[in-house]
TrEMBL record:
Top-rank taxon: Bacteria
Keyword Transcription assigned: yes
Protein name: Metal-dependent transcriptional regulator
Organism: Sharpea porci
Entries under InterPro entries matching the protein: DtxR_MntR_Metal-Reg (IPR050536), Fe_dep_repressor (IPR001367), Fe_dep_repressor_sf (IPR036421), HTH_DTXR (IPR022687), Iron_dep_repressor (IPR022689), WH-like_DNA-bd_sf (IPR036388), WH_DNA-bd_sf (IPR036390)
Database matches in SUPFAM superfamilies: Iron-dependent repressor protein, dimerization domain, Winged helix' DNA-binding domain
Residue stretches in coiled coil: none
Length: 131
């Protein structure tokens, strides 16, 4: 994990993940879609999108559509992979759906890539310490 990724805030990760998920579901993403998904005010989302654009993760098209940059897409996919892994793992342990979702959301942000991959390997029965 790079220093830049270590400094990334959970809210930044949540926005990138939301953009990716909305685009997968609808084929497009606008600020209002993010506001609805995350239950945030549109003004708060606009500020965050400006920040993400400045940091090179998002491109805001003239028509208001949002696109992830290559780096934004890479990070969003990593975050979504973590979320899905933890959600599925918690479900397999018998954790109630809503609790599993909430816990997966917290867990996806809580560790570096190396630790995440070690957990994945362990859970998959390959506790050899290699990624």
């Amino acid at each position: 994990m790079s220093k830049h990724e270590m400094k990334m805030y959970q809210s930044t990760e949540d926005y990138l993940e939301a953009i990716l998920m909305i685009k997968q579901e609808k084929g497009y993403c606008r600020s209002i879609d993010i506001a609805k998904r995350l239950d945030f005010k549109k003004s708060s989302v606009s500020i965050a999108i400006s920040k993400l654009t400045h940091e090179g993760y998002v491109i805001k098209e003239e028509d208001g559509m949002l696109e992830l940059t290559e780096e934004g897409s890479r990070l969003a996919n990593d975050i979504l992979e973590r979320h899905n892994f933890f959600l599925n793992w918690l479900r397999s342990l018998g954790v109630e759906e809503e609790q599993a979702y909430d816990d997966a959301c917290r867990m996806e942000h809580a560790m570096c890539n190396d630790t995440f991959h070690k957990i994945v390997n362990y859970v998959r029965g390959r506790n050899d310490g290699n990624s």
